[in-house]
Amino acid sequence: MMIKALFRKQFAEVFSQFSKRSGTQNNSPRKGLITVIVIFGVLYVSLGMSFFTFSKEIFANLTSETYPLFYMMIGLIATAIGLLGSVFNAYTTIYEAKDNEMLLSLPIPPRRIVMVRVATLLVMTLLYSGSVLLPSFIAFLVYGNPTLLGGINAAFLFIPLILLIEAVTIGIAFIVAAAARKVKNKKAIVLVFSMALVLVFYLVYFRAQSFVTELTTIGSIPDAARYALFFYYSMGRASQGSVIDMLIVVVTGVGAFFLAYYLLSRFFVKFTAANKSLASKGKKGVVKAASLRFSLFKREWKIFSSSPAYVMNAAFFGVLALFVVPIVAIVKGEALRGALSMLAETFPRTNGGALAAAVVTIIGGMSCITAPSISIEGKRITLLRSLPIEPKEIFGAKIALHLAVLLPGILFASITLAAVLAVDALSWVTMILYPIAHTFFTAAFGLTMNLHFPVLDWTDEITAIKSGAAVLITVFGVMILTSVVGVLYFAFASFLSDGVYLAILTLLFTIADIILVKWLGDQGKRKFELLG
Amino acid sequence: MSEIIENAKTNEAPAILEIYNLSKSYGDKSAVADLSFTVHAGELCAFIGHNGAGKTTTLKCVAGILSFDGGHIRVDGVSLEDDALEVKRRIAYIPDNPDLYDFMTGMQYLNFIADVFGVSEDLRRERIEKYSAALSLTEGEIGSLISSYSHGMKQKLALISAFLHDPKLILLDEPFVGLDPKASHVLKEIMRDFCTAGGAILFSTHILEVAEKLCDKVAIIKGGTLVTFGSMEEVKGNSSLEDVFLDMEDDEDDD
How far is A424 from chain B (nearest CA, A)? Predict the structure, then answer.
């Protein structure tokens, strides 16, 4: 009964975020569920098709000796995507939920509270990893010619894999919480630790991924790989029908999960209580005046930088990629120019500028700081609304923050790629202007969506940052639009130069920017005035 | 009701808060219906009613946070419907459970509020020092993150922020909740001084003794409707405010 009530509360909060529209009293849970299903349906179909094709290509290169490599590779990809779904959120979901103290004051064993928090993370992991595991499993049945036992094993492999991913996720949250216990500025330490742990994990992951890819060309699996990636190797062997390997996978996945869950439950009260600190040790504050605009911008920066979950989910990877991709382009400059000359055989007018701009804008569009920026205000929105501030000033500060965080990377990437590709003057200019117009569009569109779908009554800030309809629509909407615009280039490439194509895009996105700004100043203002 | 408005109009001090026929509903449920009263400069007015009577809704309407369905609100002669921003410049609103910015230090928060109202550095320094000393909020505490504050400290910080821009009208929702006895005592003095200097305060409270001793006027609301309004002497006569309030509750229940 108790655990049922806890689960009901937790998932009601998650799903209610999808059914809320500003200015309406009618929030239908069914509509919310439909929104979730549609968004994930689109994601599943698009990702599913690409992973199905990818799986087919792997099987074309496998021998009976290297057969386990299929599930080794799929397991690693599912791990990476599954971690994306939960790793940035684990600490906040578990330790920083606003109702932790209230729940702890009730006669509920802490392990039950932890169980419910972990269940939320598990669902997110399942949804993300499932987009790889489901199409891969279908491809495995179609092209892998599995034995009956191999097919049955493969059908259930997702369970221990998801549990292992979750063990890593909550393990990271546990380490971060343990490290943050006696530190004054917990938010900073959480942010630094999260970044460091995730970077280390992904460095190891990408090394393993390229290692496994190389193995497909060798024709055998060396012992080193079997031991280093034993869990994933056992997944592969289990898909061949090995019962012992299936047992190894189950014991490892389930064991790791319960160990992490035990540690989490054991220290939950201690670490949660340690989140609080006394106020008397602060330094004397400084009285300092600033303009309204700068003050609002500082406020936005504080909201953003003080939330590790916000930084990690809304910006970290996008900004990092904007600096990494151009460096890779410099290192691999020769290969890039070689690929370009091959492309030029079909499209003689191309100089690679449009494709480079497409890459920059797709990466930039993955980050949207404004999409949760209204929701993250939470109930504090009433404080803001009681002050004599024009909504357009608040909107301006939110968009300015997005630009301040994203534009340095956007400009660095655009200028570096333009230099590496040695494009003409028009392409140089438009390779810079188009991403700027696009970045502004992402910011204004995200804010518009959040005004349509605000989430203010959250108890866990992750629901505002990640689960709201505004974030999903913005990120996937911008990604699809930007990809379509990038692919459309090939329809015009035979008679338009890259510079002209990008100039047209710059113009179109600038018009869209103006329309969105006008909407925000008019309809957006009215929606804002109904919030709270 | 028109009598009340007429009386208010004949009061010599200028009207700071004028509420005429205010109505506000949430869906089908009426929260406030046809509410009218006026608070003049120098007046400290208590706003009393049981839970869910419509006090917070009224305060939020005056603060410009909630839109209302009918009626008019004027603050210091400025119509809220015509110029909400100008009204907000003339008021300060402190909710019952101030949800301040946890990610700021107390000083950063005060600087932010002062920036919004365009308060000069000298003035804000002077007022911060004055009110933080009065409310016993130390420099170290003001320099700490708000996330580490107790409820009472948040309340004190919110109160300091309310006085930073020298508003004409202060709206306080349950201002004494969470304050220690000394801070409560100081706050009463500050409120009194503020009104003596020509400001006006409308505050909701369940502590009837405080309202009775402190206030010039009292408005009692029930079910979203104003039950009585007037000077403290007029309303309570020879009995206590508590007796008057409880009698009204009983009368309504009998009806």
Answer: 47
| A209 and chain B in contact, CB less than 8 A | no
The interface residues of chain B toward chain A in range 43-62, judged by CB-CB distance below 8 A, are 60
Cβ contact (<8 Å) for B115 and A306? no
Work out the mean pLDDT of chain A and round it to a whole number. Answer: 85
Two structure tokens written together for B63: 């603060």
- Check residue B148 and report its DSSP letter: G
Q: A-chain residues within 8 Å CB-CB of B118?
A: 292
CA distance to partner chain B, nearest, from residue A295 (Å): 6
Between helices A158-180 and A186-218, what is the axis angle to 10°? 150
Q: Chain B: nearest CA to A116, how far in angstroms?
A: 25
CB pair distance less than 8 Å for A386 and B65: yes
pLDDT tens across A443-458, in order? 999 999 999 989 888 8
User: Which chain B residues have a beta carbon less than 8 Å from that of A378?
Assistant: 99
To which H or E segment does residue B218 belong?
strand B217-222
SS (H, E, C) A373-422: CCHHHHHHHHHHHCCCCCHHHHHHHHHHHHHHHHHHHHHHHHHHHHHHHC
First to last CA, chain A: 33
Question: Which pLDDT belongs to residue B4?
Answer: 41
Q: Give ipTM to 2 decimals.
A: 0.77
Residue ranges of alpha helices (H) inside A62-185 are 69-86, 90-95, 100-105, 110-143, 148-156, 158-180
In this prediction, residues A365-383 reach a mean pLDDT of 92
Token pair of A163, please? 């549990």
Enumerate domains of chain B plus CATH numbers. Answer: 2-96+168-254 (3.40.50.300)
A299/B101 touch (CB, cutoff 8 Å), yes or no:
yes
Pick the more confident residue, A169 or A178: A169
- The residue in chain B having the minimum alpha-carbon distance to the alpha carbon of residue A25 is B27
> What are the domain boundaries of chain A?
2-273, 292-529
A182 CB within 8 Å of a chain B CB: no
Does A190 score more than 90 pLDDT?
no
B124 to chain A, any CB pair closer than 8 A? The answer is yes
Full 3-state SS string of A21-56: CCCCCCCCHHHHHHHHHHHHHHHHHHHHHHHHHHHH
Per-residue pLDDT, B2: 46
In chain A, pLDDT over 70 holds for what percent of residues?
87
What is the rounded CA–CA span in Å between residue A66 and residue A307? Answer: 45
Q: Distance between CA atoms of A126 and A131, rounded to whole angstroms?
A: 9
Burial letters B116-146, b for 16+ CB under 10 A, else e? bbebeeebbbebbeebbebbebebebbbbbb
Residue in chain B closest to A291 (alpha carbons) equals B115
Q: Is the pLDDT at A20 greater than 60, yes or no? A: no
Residue A35: the pLDDT is 65
Alpha-carbon distance of A240 to A67, in angstroms, equals: 8
DSSP A194: H
Q: Provide the pairing of β-strand B15-26 with B70-75.
A: antiparallel
Cross-chain Cβ contact A279/B112 below 8 Å: no
Task: Tell me the residues of chain B between 139 and 158 that have a Cβ less than 8 Å away from chain A.
Answer: 139-145, 148-150, 153
Most A-contacting residue of B101, B127, B149, B161 (CB-CB within 10 A), to test interface: B101
CA-wise closest residue to A74 among A53, A57, A51: A51
pTM of the model: 0.78
β-strands B169-173, B200-204 pairing: parallel
CB contact under 8 A, B150 and A302: no
Contacts of A471 (CB under 8 A, 6+ apart): A368, A371, A372, A446, A449, A465
What amino acid occupies position A67? Y
Q: Among B18, B133, B23, which Cα is nearest to B71's?
A: B23
Query: How many angstroms away from the CA of A270 is the closest CA of chain B?
Result: 17
